[in-house]
Amino acid sequence: AKNMGAIVRAFDVRPVCKEQVESMGATFLEVDVQEDGSGTGGYAKEMSDEFKAAQARLMLEQAGDVDIIVTTALIPGRKAPILVNQDMLDVMKPGSVVVDLAAANGGNAEQTRPDEIVTTSNGVKIIGYTDLPSRLAATASNLFGNNVAKFILSIGPQTTGEKGVFQIDLEDDAVQNMLISYNGEKRWPDQITPYSPPPPPKKEVEEIVAKSEEELLAEKNAEQLQSFVQNTGVATLAAAALLAFGLTTDSPDAVSLMSTFALAGLAGYQVVWGVAPALHSPLMAVTNAISGMTAVGGMVLLAHGTQAEGLIPNSPSHWMGAITTMLSFINIAGGFLVSGKMLDLFKRPDDPDDFFQLYAIPAGLLLAGLAGSA
Asked: How confident is the model over 135-170, as pLDDT tens digits?
């Protein structure tokens, strides 16, 4: 079930089962009462009333969260204990399934009826078949055949690299240790090479050098200096680019706009760079509001000065306005998408759906009007 994408949880009163469950990749559920339920013959024994109460609380909590419950609890010579009572069935989601493998001894679910499928009032199906082993003959044969085939194929075909060539790899420790005979010759026990594990890697002895507080402070100052040097280099390049733009343009307005843009970019860089990477996604919600203002400023620039003929800007200010508006809308859309996905993580199944996509109608009408007026 885990390989098919399911989240598997298991519970047992025998502590020895914990390691077995976790070795298969599942989560082992535990109660807050320490009591060993191991009995004779591998079966469990009846637990105390305190343990049963803690177990009922745990099962009630899990019943409302899971989609499938499989029960197998049996006590030799006694009726199967009730593990899934009516309260647990009532909190299960519609369409959930309880597979009661103890149905022959009365069942672990309260409404189990042997050899029947019972559907509760809230849509939970309880399967109480007592002949499940005979129903799974084909499935068991397929699983066993698959294991045998994989076992045989693991002996050697992967070592040749040639399709359709089967060659037993005697260099493989696992293969040569399980071969009793090969090419008509007896190999066991004389020709079996005992497996000897490789020696453990030598641990490198780390030399611990004690440093004084002055040395530690000097190292921190050096790291801080390196960070400042890097930021200073970026700022210097930005200043040189701004100066080159001012020397090559004849428009004072363009120089003023570029200065404002450079300062805003530097401030935004410092704000985002100073935030931990784990907070970058929540930060997108804040940048939506900031980008909304820059989009308004870009549209104001597009309306400023001599109007262009058509949709192509005809001045540096119009070009900057168009670029600002485009980048702002990209940032706004991306921010809302990220924020929406984050909010979906906290959305409950019974919450009503949102229909924000309908806002595309007025937005499309506005864009169509702007395009028509151009």
From this structure: 889 999 999 999 988 888 777 656 556 777 777 877
Alpha-carbon distance 13 to 50, whole Å? 13
Q: What are phi and psi of 127, to 5 degrees?
A: -95, 120
d(CA 285, CA 265) in angstroms, rounded, equals: 18
Q: Is the pTM of this model over 0.70?
A: no
Instruction: Write the pLDDT tens digit of every residue in 76-134.
Output: 788 898 989 999 999 999 999 999 999 999 999 999 999 999 999 999 999 999 998 88
φ/ψ of residue 314, rounded to 5:
-120, 10
CA 156/CA 149 separation, integer angstroms: 12
Q: What is the phi/psi pair of residue 22, to 5°?
A: -70, -30
Can you tell me whether residue 72 is helix, strand or coil?
coil
Residue 227, Cβ neighbours under 10 Å: how many? Answer: 10
Q: Which residues pair with 44 in a beta bridge?
A: 38
Q: Give the amino acid at 341.
A: K
pLDDT of 42: 57
Half-sphere exposure of 330 (CA within 13 A, CB side): 6
Query: How many CB atoms are closer than 10 A to CB 295?
Result: 18
Residue position matching structure tokens 């990220």: 338
